Every structure is written in structure tokens, then in C-alpha cells.
Amino acid sequence: MKEIDPFINAYQVFRNSVDSKTDGKLPAVDDLVWCMLAGVPVVPADEDDSDYGAIKAVAQRVAILKAVFVETNSEKPDEFLDKGLTVYDEAADAAKRLLRDSKQNKR
Q: What's 8-25 look like in SS3?
């Protein structure tokens, strides 16, 4: 039996935890930043203890979060989806900045 890619598995686990029946709302940047820094959803890069591991984990999280956002809001207009995806990108940038800043302040 072929083993599932860890990233695909992380996506599926998170996707199955999301209630797709709720009315779609645009996410809040601060809430997303908190999720990304708190480790939600769990991703393969969480196991990477290198200097780049946390940044890589944010990138994996935002990819999963964006995919689930689009999937669960597929009936919404493109403008809504575009705004949502922009919010996810802004949150990922903010989370990565915070990680870099905290790393520099530790030195």
C-alpha cells in the first residue's frame, strides 16, 4: 500500500475537521496569525527544528488554510475568494515577520 504524503495527510486531517455547512465569512488577519504561530493546523514542517522550520511550517499552514477556504466557499463570488486569499497572504507575511523578529531579538 502506498504511503500518503505527509502534507496531503495534514490537509486531509484539517479539511475533515472543518464544518463546511457554516456561512462563509472572511477570516480576520489577527486570528489567522495566531493560528499560524500556535501550530494550527499541524503540518510536516513542525518536525523541522532547523532555523527555517518555523517559516516553512507557516508556508505549509497557509497553503492548507487557503485550500480549505476556497473549497468550503466555492459557491461564493470570485471577489469574495480573492479578498479571503489576500487576508491569508497578509496573515502569513505577518506571522513570518514575527518569527524573524523574535529570532533576531534572541541573539
A: HHHHHHHHHHCCCCCCCC
Q: What cell numbers appear for 26 in the block?
A: 472572511
Q: Where are the domains of the chain?
A: 27-106
Assign residue 39 a region (left: φ > 0; alpha: ψ between -120 and 50; beta: otherwise). Answer: left
| Continuous segment of H or E residues that includes residue 98 | helix 78-106
Per-residue pLDDT of the chain (107 residues; tens, 9 = 90+): 678 899 999 999 999 998 877 777 898 999 999 999 999 999 999 999 988 999 999 999 999 999 999 999 999 999 999 999 999 999 999 999 999 988 776 65
Closest C-alpha among 82, 76, 43, 79 to residue 62: 43
- In the structure grid, which three cell numbers stand for residue 51, read together? 532555523
